[in-house]
Hints:
Mean pLDDT: 92
Bound molecules: 2,5-dihydroxybenzoic acid, fe (ii) ion
Strand content: 25-35%
Number of strands: 23
Low-confidence stretches: none
Largest sheet: 6 strands, antiparallel
Shape: globular
CATH class of the largest domain: Mainly Beta
Strand order of the largest sheet: 1-19-16-21-14-13
Distance between the termini: 37 Å
CATH topology of the largest domain: Jelly Rolls
Order of helices and strands: HEHEEEEEEEEEHEHEHEEEEEEEEEHEE
Radius of gyration: 23 Å
CATH superfamily of the largest domain: Jelly Rolls
Amino acid sequence: MATRRFHAPADPALSNLYADLAERNLQPLWELTGLLTPTPKAWATPYRWRGKELRELGARAGDLVPVDRGGDRRVLSLANPSLGGAPYATPTLWGAVQYLGPAETAPAHRHTPAALRFVLEGEGVWTLVNGDPLHMAAGDLILTPSWTWHEHHNPGTTPMAWFDALDLPLVEALGAVFFERGHEPGAARVTAPRSASESRYGGGPGLLPCDGPSPPAAHSPLLRYPWAATDRALSSRLADEGAEAAGARHAHVRFADPTNGRDVMPTMRCEMHRYLPGHTTPALRRTGSSLVAAFRGTGAVVLDGISYDVAPGDLIAVPSWTSVAYIADEPLDLFTVSDAPVLEALALYREEAAADPPETSLTP
Length: 364
Ligand code: GTQ
Ligand code: FE2
C-alpha cells in the first residue's frame, strides 16, 4: 500500500513537498493525529462469547472435524470483531475453546508462544507437557510454557472442552513465533502415574524439594494448579477477611511460581476471583488486556459502564484501559489471564480507580 499522501490545497509548494514525501515513503508528524494520545487508544473493544454457544459449536465441530495431522487441534479461536478479522481476542492474547472427543489425541508439538488451559467443566483429559502427565479436571489450571512439548489425550468415554489462552498475538508482533511438530501420534503415551512437576512442586504450601535439579528460571516449575487448592485459598481468604472486616465480599488469588512468587509465565498473569452475592466492586482500569472466563455462579462484568451478564462458560475480552467492575448474583468464580507481567517488566503497568461508578445498562 502506498504511503498516505497529505494535501495543502492553499499552498502549492507545501503540496509538492507532501507529494515528494509520499513518493519517498515519509510522513510529516505535524499532520499525524491520534498517535500520542493522552490515555491509551481503545482500538479493541470489549466482547463476550456465550458459554452455551461455545459448548454447542464445539460439539458440532467434534462431530464434523477429525483431530489428526491435518489440523492437530480442534480449537475455536475467539475473534474479537474489533480486531479486523484476526483470530485474536485482544491485541496481545489468543483465547479459544478446545474440544477433544473420547479416545482422541491432539498430537505433540511445541511453539514459542506460551499457552495455558483452564478447565471449565468435565474431566479426564491428560496433557503431557515435556512428557509429564497432567490430569485435567474442572477448575484446574495447566501451563504449557514457551517451547515445551505438549499433546492432549482423552482416554475416557466422554468429550471434554476447555479454555485455552496463548500470548500468540504478542509473540507474533515481536517476530518470535517458532513451531515444531513432535513424534507421530500413537497409542496413549501416559507413561507415569503421577506428574514429576506436581510431586516435586505441588507437595504443599511453602514446601520445596531440597534435592534434585534446579527449577527452570523462565516459568513456574509447577505445571498444574488443581482446583481443590485454588478453592481452598479463596475460601480461606474470605473467611479471614470476613472475620477482620465484616463486609469483605470478594477474594482474589494469583497463581504463582512456588519457588519465587512470580507470575506463572513471563508473559501471562493468572488469577482466580470469587465474589459473594450482592457485591459490586469499585471500577478499575489497567494498562494491558485480559480475558475473563466465568467458571461458576452468575453475575455481571461491567466494562466502560456497559453491563455484560455472565453465566458459566462465558468468555470476555477486556481491552487496555477499559474500566472493569464485577457484580455477583450468586457466588461468582472467575478465572482471569492478562499480559500484566509484560507491562510490568517494561515499566508500562498502570492502574487507577475509574472515575464513574458503574452503570448497569444492558447489552443485547
Ligand atoms: O492445545 O496446543 O488454542 O497449539 C492454540 C494453539 C491450543 C494447543 C490453541 C495450540 C493449542
Ligand atoms: Fe500448542
